[in-house]
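Subject line: Sequence and fold of a protein, written as structure tokens
Body of memo: The sequence and its backbone structure tokens, given next.
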Amino acid sequence: MAANETQWLGLRDYEPVWREMQAFTDTRDDSTADKLWFCEHPSVFTLGMAASREHVLAPGDIPLVAIDRGGQVTYHGPGQLMIYPLVNVRRAKLGVRGLVSGLENAVIDYLASLDVEAASRCDAPGVYVDGKKIASIGLRIRRGCCYHGMAFNIDMDLEPFQRINPCGFSNLEVIDLRSLGITQRTETVAAALTPRLNQALQTEFSFPADMPKLSIG
């Protein structure tokens, strides 16, 4: 398999990144290298394919975008690390459950390194600390390949989550690392997560030491 690429994209508008993920997935073949993208997005609400708009309570001036991942409504904004594994899951022999578990376990292991006990839930994908959600997952598998991924709350304004029922749950509390008294930059967390993702997903991502801010396309 060709060498894989890991990229830090910086702060990028949501929709252009989503369209680039679609285009990459539609044009890749079995020899195409997998990619791992990390980035942040300006404020946006996203609705999964099965999402009910009744879970969007008061979006205000934050854009609302209907997209092609699974799951309900969620919020993305600055200070939230987006983790996009563009992986040929058929080639990697990864099932959907294995992919979700790998993403969850990478974050759980990272939080354990910070002395934070976290867990996943069988009834609602993501990572939770004391029942509060700190990372959410929404994926799309097309042509045997995945895109979309995981949102990990690092140091962000959590108020917009009060304008929705996050992931379709009206009583779900959302937290970030800062809520736990931990101050980290998203780039730092991306660097720490990469080897954990490699191990959890059993792939061969190579991570650039200097984390250049590369653009997509």
